[in-house]
Hints:
Elements: H1 6-12, H2 14-26, E1 44-49, H3 55-63, E2 67-73, H4 75-78, H5 83-88, E3 92-96, E4 110-114, H6 122-135, E5 141-146, H7 157-168, H8 177-185, E6 189-196, E7 202-208
Parallel strand pairs: 1-2, 1-4, 2-3, 4-5
Antiparallel strand pairs: 5-7, 6-7
Bound molecules: S-adenosylmethionine.
Amino acid sequence: MHGAQLFEHLAAYPADARLFEGAMAAGTSFLGLVPGLPDLPATGTVVDVGGSDGRLLDLVLTAAPGLRGVLFDRPHVTAAAAEVPAAHGERAEVVAGDFFHDPVPAGGDLYLLSRIMHDWDDERCSAILRNVRAAMAEGATPAVVERPIRDDPGTLLPLAFDVHMMVNTVQGGERTTDEHRRLPAADGFALEDVRELPLDVAVLIARAVV
Ligand SMILES: C[S@@+](CC[C@H](N)C(=O)[O-])C[C@H]1O[C@@H](n2cnc3c(N)ncnc32)[C@H](O)[C@@H]1O
């Protein structure tokens, strides 16, 4: 209807982009629990890949005062994301880039990908994951926040979001836990643990394999 894919449309229409970022931030009550889930390192760097306005990074940096944080997102988003660096001073850095064309910030100890995978098909997810794999410090942890489709047919929210993503993205969608397990396997990661959050969200913790 708008003649462009979602993120291209948002790049061209700042008011819509701010509306989208606000909607993302408004739907993040569960993210308050994320910092407790990937066993945050006491020191080091967390990189929030596609971190939008920095709401999740803010929660992580507040929960772990020894960590530095890097917010990575497209330039039209980072240009408007002033609150996180302001709140955390030198501990927070903002890097503008495109995870399909630019290297993800290197040397992080924890890479967060919150609600990123569901925007893309497997091929594009692999490109993002390979980019993260190339950037990671040895022993770093990737943590994916998504709403996996469960075997339990009573768990309806992931299915509703699957349709939502189908309508709003190009070949995006929610994945089953097994699909999440298979996805990074080809890109140098193994899924290690699935930690549940409210509203059927989960943090999928992976580790790099050779
Ligand atoms: C669904 S939002 C999730 C935002 C945030 N991580 C959260 O959970 O609230 C997807 C994010 O990916 C970012 N994004 C989309 N395409 C990107 C690209 N090519 N490179 C970097 N970031 C991108 C968008 O700007 C947006 O902030």
